[in-house]
Structure formats: structure tokens, C-alpha cells
Amino acid sequence: MQTRRQMAAWLGMGALPAWAQTPAKKAGPVPWRFIINEAVTGETNIFLLTNRYKGLTDYLTTHLKGQPIEMEPVVDIQRFLTIAKGTPKPDLVFGKSVNQLAKLVRDNGYQPLVRRADPYKAAFIVGKDSPIKTLADIGQARIIMPDEFAATTAVARAELLRNNLTNMKVMHVKYQEAVAQQIQSGLGQVGVVNPTTAKKWVEGGGRVLAETQPVVNWSILASPALPGETVKHLREGLLAMNTNAAPAMASIGVKEWALAEAKDYAALLQYTRE
Predict the structure, then answer these.
(1) Under CATH, what is the fold of the domain 123-211?
(2) Which among 5, 51, 59, 108 counts the fewest CB atoms within 10 Å?
(3) May I ask the CATH class of domain 32-119+216-272?
(4) What is the DSSP letter of 169?
(5) What gap in Å lies between CA 104 and CA 97, rounded to an integer?
(6) 228 CB-near residues (< 8 Å, 6+ apart)
(7) Which residues lie below 8 Å from residue 173, measured CB to CB, with a gap of 6+?
(8) Radius of gyration for the alpha carbons in the chain, expressed in angstroms and rounded
(9) How much is the mean pLDDT over the chain?
């Protein structure tokens, strides 16, 4: 360790040792936290999820002129919500469980940025030879639904209520793909799935019994703490992806972004009665 006398001597000679001459590095901007949840339709491998959203994160970093963003995929819906509602709140949130995102907007002050342009509709599926022809025919047939926190489940329950069907026999499974498997194996008579799974079901010879009302689709939200000008800048940049960032869009399964507004999420929650 250098003594004070040695330091004074160096100062007197007008020189400093190399270790004392190195200027302190300036601290860069604090990274934004971006949490991502694919609900019950997505990949559970964190490495694959990180790669999937890297293009989106890199694009936003460039648009924000170098603002670093730390992406954090969260597989479990409940943990995702706990983080989103915590303190401090993440700067950006992407999710597929839009009923849960709607509650973040209504109850936690999150600011809608963009949504997937096409609306979301869940489908009720049955086997090709099923005697069930309409929702009114379900009776006490067992309905297989995905996770209770999923948007697919929320809108399906809303549609059943809209049709005055309140005494249903419902069983939940974790993932969308498992719903179709349960119907195929005869463990349930009616399944509730997303559009992708419904399309595959029909291609395999099954039937779609009915669909839910269309609602707002996958969305990106901004923290309540982000100022209005920053939110406006983010919206403009994300909408510009429609023409400037096709590979990043394709990677996350979004054909086009549309402007998201608070009324979209209010309408969804009115439908689901949440």
C-alpha cells in the first residue's frame, strides 16, 4: 500500500503513478427491465425464449438510442404477475395472457403501447363424431380448459356465461397442447384452445363447436413510471417495426402491431367479468 508520504512526493514532482492517473469510468444508463410471459402456449426453455425476443430487445435498444434493456422471460403466469405488480415495476411488459395484462392496466397503472393487430378468439373443440353440436348441448359433458390464469380460459368462461351456461364440469390442464390430447383420448368431451391449436385440430379431422367473442390480443405495456414523451416514442418505434423489422416480428409470431388503448382492456374485462 502506498503511504501518504510517497503520494505527497509524487505530487511534488508533478507526477502520479499509472494507477492514480486512470480516470474513473462514467456510469452508463441504468438498464430497463423487460419481462416476458408466453402464458400456457409458449416454450419453457429460457435459452430459447431469450433468443426468440432478442431481435425485439435489440430493436428497442437502437430505437431508444442505446438505452440498455435486460430481457427476462418468465414462464409461470403467477410469478410474472407478482413481478409486474412489485416495486419497482418493470419498465416494459410483454404477455399473452391478455386478461391479466388488462388488470395490470386497470389496477396497476400500466400504459398500453401496442397489441397484436388481429383479435384473439378461443375455440371450443369436439371430436368429429361428437353428438354435441352447439354450446347448449354441452350439458354435463366434461370441458377441458388450460391454466386458470390463461386468457383462453377467461374468455371461454365468459362465453359460457353469455350463453347462460353456469353449471359446467370443468377440468384444467397446464398447457394448450394437453387440452387437445385429453379430448383425443376421451378424457373430456369439449376442449378450449387457442386459434393455433384449433386450426391443427380441424386439420386432423376434429370440429370447432364455437368461438368466443374477439378481444384484444398479445400486448406490450409500459411501466406507470415512464413519462408520456417516452411512452409516445416507444409506441412510434414499435409501430414502425411493421415495416422496418420483419425478422424480429416473425421471431415472436406477430404479423403486425396495432396501437393499444386502455379501452381495449376495459372491454375485455367487461366481457370476462373480472
Answers:
(1) D-Maltodextrin-Binding Protein; domain 2 (3.40.190)
(2) 5
(3) alpha beta
(4) E
(5) 11
(6) none
(7) 144, 145, 146, 147, 179, 182
(8) 25
(9) 90
121 — pLDDT class (breaks 50, 70, 90): very high
Q: What is the pLDDT of residue 5?
A: 53
24: left (phi over 0), alpha (psi -120 to 50) or beta: beta
- Among 47-51, 86-90, 166-170, 173-177, the range scoring the smallest mean pLDDT is 173-177
Rounded distance between C-alpha atoms, residue 270 and residue 159, angstroms:
12
Name the burial class of residue 80, with classes exposed (0-12), middle (13-18) and buried (19+) by CB atoms within 10 angstroms of its CB: buried
Predicted TM-score of the model (pTM)? 0.86
| CB contact burial 158-196 (16+ within 10 A = b; e otherwise) | bbbeeeeeeebebebbebbbbbbebbeeeebbbbbbbbe
Give Cα 206 distance to the centre of its chain. Answer: 29
The strand order across the sheet containing 123-126 reads 169-172, 142-145, 190-193, 123-126, 207-211
Residues of the chain with CATH 3.40.190.180: 32-119+216-272
DSSP string covering 170-234: EEE-SSHHHHHHHHHTTS-SEEEE-HHHHHHHHHTT-EEEEEPPPB--SEEEE-TTS-HHHHHHH
Report which DSSP code applies to 70: E
6-20, 131-145, 180-194, 202-216: the lowest-pLDDT one: 6-20
Residue ranges, CATH 3.40.190.10, the chain: 123-211
The size of the chain, in residues, is: 274
Local structure of residue 137 (DSSP, 8 states): G
The position carrying cell 365468459 is 158
- Specify the amino acid at residue 7: M
